[in-house]
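Troubleshooting: if your tokenizer reports a length mismatch, compare your output against this known-good record of 165 residues.
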Amino acid sequence: MSSFHVQADDPYSEPAPDSLPLAAPWAYELHFPCDPRSPGIARLTLRAVLAAHHLAELGDRAELLTTELATNSVRHTKGPASVRLHWLCPVLRVSVWDMSPDLPSLAPPPPVSVHADSGRGLVILDAVADRWGGCAIGEGPYGPGGKTMWFELALRQAPPPTLVA
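Known-good structure output:
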């Protein structure tokens, strides 16, 4: 049975659909220009989506890794990029696409000096993500190629049975 909530004092109010159950899959995508403000916007968008879906438990780790990948896209490429959030209970996959086909080495990252100015991104990704990877995308008839880097984070404990669809 579906329920709708209508504000009684607003004659133009449309009925609001029910929220998706926790176990229902969803995806959001944000496209952004090569601009130093973009990683912060991606981070705020991610935080809002996770809060709306009651997945704040994943927030700190997801924000750190999304910011790292989006920053690399802005810093090392000249074109647009995008962040895609895909939930498939109990795993969140975050993918960052950019115009550069150059993948970083997907081998376990080497240790980085504490005095290094850069080069910690893959070390952080490897330490924080449950799984991660990337793939180059060839130029095709539907648009530019580039690459996608992704990571996955899983809920530490299964959702309560009442929230599973």
